[in-house]
Amino acid sequence: METKLLKANEESIDLAIKLLKQGEVVGVPTETVYGLAGDCSNPSAIKKIFEAKGRPMDNPLIVHISNLKMLKGIVSQISTDAKTLAHHFWPGPLTIIMPKGDKVCSESCAGLDSVGVRMPENEIARRIIEKSNVAFSAPSANLSGKPSPTNAQDVFNDMKGRIPLIIDGGECINGVESTVISVLNDTPIILRPGVITKEDIENVLHKPVSIAKGVTELVDDNKKVLSPGMKYKHYSPNAKIVIVKSSLEKFVKFVNSKQNEDGIFAMCFDGEEKNLKVKFVTYGKLEDEKAQAHNLFSCLRHFDELGAKIVYARCPKKEGISLAVYNRLIRSAGFDIIEL
Ligand code: TXA
Ligand code: MG
Questions:
Q1: Among the atoms of ligand 1, which is closest to the Cα of residue 28?
Q2: 47, 169, 201, 215 — which has fewest CB within 10 A?
Q3: Does the pLDDT of residue 231 top 70, yes or no?
Q4: pTM, whole model, 2 decimals?
Q5: pLDDT in tens, 301-318
Q6: How close is the Cα of 276 to the center of ligand 2, in Å?
Q7: Do strands 4-7 and 136-137 pair parallel, antiparallel, or not at all (unpaired)?
Q8: Residue in 62, 117, 233 to alter for ligand 1 test, most ligand atoms within 8 A of Cβ
Q9: Would you say the CB of residue 110 lies under 6 angstroms from ligand 1?
Q10: Mean pLDDT of all residues in the chain?
Q11: Does residue 97's CB lie within 6 angstroms of at least one atom of ligand 1?
């Protein structure tokens, strides 16, 4: 299959709409990461998404809408918490898990009786939904297991020959996927952290919000997990990533001791590279959590272009937006952490 990579304009958007209506899969920009969009009501379109990514069939997709009226039929019930969250954070990078409605095919929800929904902030994504009146399911547009794509070229590198069209809407603003929150029970629970933080959500709901254990810890494959996506190894470049939890001084000393080994790289915060004797990539200042989130995935992909074999990464903080960075990085490292 030929894969077209077209700049976003009226013509390419119309082509995307035509393909979506025909049950095809299209790469689209969002404010978080690029998505692989397919009509959420069409099982054959959803199967194509899973095939294009090589995604395990038990990992459900997020449905994207462009206005609140579209929720009807996609969800069967909207709780007070869900309403409050939608009102405050949509359009934006928050996915709300609610009881599933009949309009979404069960393949999209991997057989669960709940569905994750979000209204993207990105104008191009919203225009495609609004003009087609097709709510689309969309996972991140990477091959399963690889870092999520934050620009159209990264989508092309993973998806060429697998889907007919990618719409190029430039670089994603946020760079990490949406915050996923379940409001199925009285205490809302964050299943995946993002740029909308626990504190942001608590300020709006005026009640405590919990964070699923799997956000920072390895979950047991055999146990029932709240969010199936949490159990898979994720976001991994070809290089092996190892997180080093230590002071900067100890980090530099440790990494420099490996300088004669082949393909060793450091992944550190801006300004920390001064005394390093190995090659490095920086991904934002230590205190600039937005920049870290924005750069993380492109940084991970960059290591492959550089031919890195082992990457020693400085450990991000576990709070605010950095929690989202930590959550992705620890998965890309397969939970391999060295503490010095
Ligand atoms: O920002 C985003 O959310 C991007 C863009 C394209 O919108 N999409 C995205 O999709 O990250 P994906 O498929 O890569 O991640 C969806 C996550 C998975 O961890 C999945 O397990 C979880 O959301 N999820 C989806 N539906 C769920 C449900 N009903 N219950 C629990 N977790 C769910
Ligand atoms: Mg993903």
A1: 6
A2: 47
A3: no
A4: 0.96
A5: 999 999 999 999 999 999
A6: 33
A7: unpaired
A8: 62
A9: no
A10: 95
A11: yes
Q: What is the pLDDT of residue 171?
A: 98
SS3 at position 219: coil
Q: Which two tokens stand for residue 291?
A: 């920049």
Does 115 contact ligand 1 (Cβ within 6 A)? Answer: yes
Q: Is the pLDDT of residue 226 over 90?
A: no
Compute φ and ψ for 237, nearest 5 degrees.
-75, 180
Ligand 2 geometric centre to CA of 131 (Å)? 26
CB of 327 closer than 6 angstroms to any ligand 1 atom:
no
What is residue 116's three-state secondary structure? strand
Half-sphere exposure of 52 (CA within 13 A, CB side): 33
Nearest CA to ligand 1 atom 6: 35
3-state secondary structure 30-68: CCCCCEEEEECCCHHHHHHHHHHHCCCCCCCCEEECCCH
CA distance 129 to 135: 6
- CA of 139 from ligand 1 middle (Å) equals 6
pLDDT at 225: 63
Question: Nearest ligand, CA of residue 31?
Answer: 1
pLDDT over threshold 60, residue 60: yes
pLDDT higher than threshold 60 for residue 114: yes
Rounded to an integer, what distance in angstroms lies between the CA atom of residue 270 and that of residue 292? 10
What local confidence, expressed as pLDDT, does residue 218 receive?
84
Q: Is the CB of 145 under 6 A from ligand 1?
A: no
